[in-house]
Each structure stands twice: as structure tokens, then as C-alpha cells.
Write a structure and sequence with these properties.
The protein is an alpha+beta fold. The protein folds into two domains: about 50 residues; about 150 residues, Glucose Permease (Domain IIA). Strand 6 and strand 7 form a beta hairpin. Helix 2 runs antiparallel to helix 3.
């Protein structure tokens, strides 16, 4: 059963209509010319895996900050959280995770608590790996509060992504690693850490949503460096 779930993971609800369209397209291409049908089949398989929604094994110690996205850390730098969240303009350490079109695009809560505020802002569709994408691109921001702990998570549309789909609501209590929504077709997720909390990941490191530890509120370890081996 575990092998079957690995090969055929659950499909996110957003994916069913896209999968149906890809299957129909593959049949049409096959009817036109058989080799085109094989191309359609490959694209259909890609569509299925893009919308996969696998289970994740989330660490449950309450002091941990967990990655909200699959992908690669493309930037760690100080920046002010989105103004629409009302968190002030003081720069915080921001961890930016870039998701390519082969990553799972279901995003998760980095900490447990209450979704204090949600804010959507329309914008451009620049390459999500660019620094200015955080400011210029379409985005959906979340402020999650747990007592004195206050974190911002921002889903950012990318060059191909055209739709951010939240699946939570403002005021909702949420657990660490719970699904908050997804972005369709290549994008980025930023996490803004509170002052004094150092990231335990490095630029270039691969993240697993709901599993990889980004930071620890109780850790005194300084920001990590890493080398390619």
C-alpha cells in the first residue's frame, strides 16, 4: 500500500478538472496522430504529479518552524513583511523558497496558532526567483500568531503561475504542517521570522513542506552556512 501511495499519491481537489482536460487532450492528440498521443500521455502524467497532495510527517515540537513549501531556498535576507498584514515596517529575516513546476505545490502552515489576518494583493507575474517578485508579483499573505510568536507566510505567483488558491480562512485555528492552500504552476513562498530567530537552513538547500525544520524559537544557534559537497 505504501508503494502504491508513493507511485499514486492523493490528488489535490484543484487538480481533478485539469487532469480531466489533459486526459481529453491526450485522446484528441492520439486521434490526430499516434505519436502526439504519447506526448499527451506524458503531459497528463506531469499534470497528475503537479497536483499531488501527499501526506507529510510533521515534527510536533511547538518551538519549531517548519517549511511551508517544497522547493529550494533561493534567498535568506532581511525585508519588511507585506504592509497589508499590519506587522510594521521593521525588517525581518525572510526565507524565500522557490518551487519549480515539478515540485508539489500544496503549501502548509510553518507554525500552529491562529490565522490572525489574510490579505490578497494583485500584481505582476515576474520570475518568482527574482528578489523584486516579493514586492511586485501577485500574492496571498497570511499572518499566523501563537501567543507572542508572530510569523508571516506569503504565497507569490510566478512567471507561469496564475492562480493562488487558499483553503483556510481568517480567524481559523491551525496546526503546524496543516494545508493552507496551493499555487498553480511554478511559484514561491516567503516566510518572515520574528526578530532574534535564526534560520537553520541555507541558500540552495532543498525543502520538504511540512517536514523540513526552518528555525527553532528556542535555539541559540547562529544562522547556518553550508557548502556543496
Amino acid at each position: 500500500m505504501d508503494i502504491l501511495r508513493f507511485i499514486l499519491p492523493p490528488l489535490h481537489r484543484e487538480g481533478w478538472r485539469f487532469l480531466a482536460a489533459f486526459i481529453l487532450g491526450a485522446f484528441i492528440l492520439h486521434a490526430i496522430w499516434q505519436p502526439l498521443g504519447w506526448i499527451g500521455l506524458v503531459l497528463t502524467i506531469w499534470c497528475y504529479y503537479f497536483f499531488r497532495d501527499p501526506e507529510r510527517l510533521t515534527p510536533v515540537r511547538p518551538d519549531l518552524v517548519i517549511s511551508p513549501a517544497d522547493g529550494v531556498v533561493c534567498q535568506i535576507a532581511k525585508a519588511a513583511p507585506p504592509a497589508e498584514l499590519g506587522m510594521g515596517d521593521e525588517p525581518r529575516l525572510r526565507i524565500a523558497i522557490f518551487m519549480n513546476v515539478f515540485n508539489c505545490h500544496v503549501n502548509r502552515a510553518p507554525i500552529g496558532g491562529t490565522i490572525e489576518k489574510m490579505a490578497y494583493r494583485p500584481g505582476k507575474f515576474l520570475n518568482a526567483s527574482l528578489d523584486k517578485a516579493s514586492e511586485d508579483n501577485e500574492r496571498q499573505a497570511y499572518r499566523i500568531v501563537d501567543g507572542t510568536r508572530d510569523i508571516a507566510v506569503v504565497q507569490i505567483a510566478g512567471l507561469i503561475a496564475r492562480r493562488i488558491v487558499p483553503q483556510v480562512r481568517e480567524g481559523q485555528p491551525i496546526e503546524t504542517g496543516a494545508r493552507i492552500g496551493m499555487i498553480r504552476f511554478g511559484s514561491r513562498v516567503d516566510v518572515y521570522l520574528p526578530d532574534g530567530v535564526a534560520p537553520l537552513v541555507a541558500v540552495g538547500q532543498t525543502m520538504i513542506a511540512g517536514e523540513t525544520v526552518l528555525a527553532d524559537f528556542n535555539s541559540s544557534e547562529p544562522q547556518r552556512d553550508a557548502l556543496v559537497r
